[in-house]
Amino acid sequence: MKNLSRPLRSVLYIPGSKPRALDKARGLPTDAIIFDLEDAVAPDEKPGARDLLSQALSAGGYGERLKIVRINDLSTQWGAEDAKAVCAMAADAVLLPKVSSPEDLEALAEITGDLPLWAMMETPVGMLNAAAIAAHPLCQGMVMGTNDLAKDMGTRFRSDRMPLITGLGLCLLAAKAHGVAAIDGVYNAFRDEDGLAMECAQGRDMGFDGKTLIHPAQLEIANAAFSPTADEIDLARRQIAAYDDAIAKGEAVAVVDGRIVENLHVATARETLAKMDAITTLSAE
Question: Would the pTM count as exceeding 0.85?
């Protein structure tokens, strides 16, 4: 189990070819940044974006935000050079597009060595191989590429995302089984706050750690959705206190708000408080 223990409520895509965006990202309240060398960069700008991003990361200023670089697929003319360049960048991880099997990650690791790997989960075969991908020893995160998955599956858009639920669930189970981060896909209509909030709530209820975002305007909603609520924090504290009191009396369970509290509930309560502490520390930066 890898257990990447840090807040990942908001994971913002930033184009690697845009100096202004790279600079602005230093002051945004995002838990992680995906510096994109793939979809957000035009073909003729890719070599320059690689150099620009390297300079930006060397300059620093991104604090404790997790810094992930999404490279081009290794089958493209840019992928291998991207992978080599990331090794020299001040990045925390490299994100590989369209991962279909653990062999894809292994091919990347042959270039990037011990650098932590993240996998874009965006193909039907990737969904079917999710458990094996998550089990790769260098894999620390899985990012849902819901747009590409929907395209490959030929689905129609539905606000409840029912056509994608099986794929989302397979990747989520794989991530939880192997202790890697699970990040939900993007919400395309960045001005639709209600729709974003609904999709964030769905992702949080399913168990995702956070959501990928395409615009800074989405940060506040995602950060709120994937943070413990005041009621959850209060309940967690009361569950721990009641359980500790019960154990001191020689009892195995406690009762809070008319519900049984066992050790598994206390473990969840402690995780809730630890997550809130980590969020508070990151936010105070």
Answer: yes
